[in-house]
Amino acid sequence: MPRKDAGGKRGLRQKASIFLAKANAKRKKNQNKSIDVAKVKVDHTILEALLSDTVRADKFIKVAFHHKGKTQIKEIEIDSLYIKSPFLTLSKNDRILINYYLNKYQVKNILEIYISFIIAGEEQDEQTKRMAIMKMKKVEHYLIKTRVKKSKIRIKIK
What we know:
By secondary structure, this protein is of the alpha+beta class. The chain has helices at 8-33, 44-52, 92-105, 126-145; strands spanning 59-68, 76-83, 110-119, 153-156.
């Protein structure tokens, strides 16, 4: 006599509970991926020091925010952020500055963000360019993580 399959109601319940557990885990994972810049706590003394830092660096990443103006006439205004840290990854200070500008102009009001690399002088070798492109990609990835649409981000390589 052949053996019966262990299906029935018990099998369906197990499949449903497994499906729901996987869906909940996926939802939680996706929630953790994005960063809400409005909820990020910032030490204002560090922020003021970063904003007042006007020392020019030889090499830096420029992030230009094109956003809707707050005036009666809806103009497009531009504000720039300069990331001067020499590290390939984004430092905590870099993230603080990016979060400040995203909070200041609100992500929904930002029309475009241009990321470019600027070198003062004639020092343009291949390794510097490669490092600059990798750093710009890190900035782009962080902006996408903070809910800026990829279609609004432009990387300029000179």
